[in-house]
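Our working data are protein records whose layout never changes between entries. An example says more than a description, so a record of this kind follows.
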Amino acid sequence: MSYLVAWLVVAICSLGLAVLVYFPLRKRKLLASLIIALGCYWAMWPIMFDDEGHLAPLFVVLLFRAFLEPDGNPSSVLIIGFVGTLGILICYVALLLIRKATDGPRDSSSKRDKQFRLEGKEDLSKFRRKT
């Protein structure tokens, strides 16, 4: 039962940290999603840390094997963390490329519209200053 409670605490803390990351980065939703995905991956990915089959979060096993075990070998955990992080980053770059490809034509027309609106406002502001 305590094993289940520990994983429940990890999940709730990950959700809380995701909320704390999302709200400051609301305007940059893709960046917020990247940070949340990386954080949740490192906090929630289960890694076996002993021969009895007990699982712990990736970052906990990495810290334990790197700093607390005298003969710890963190290389296997680092490889799993690197591969997962690389996969998340590849998905992020793919989403950026898709977004750039679909937003291309709309940006150029909106720039022209913005310039037209600014030119019109400048003429109006000159008129207002004279009166």
In short: The two ends are 79 Å apart (CA to CA). DSSP finds four helices and two strands in the chain. Residues 75-130 form the longest helix (56 residues).
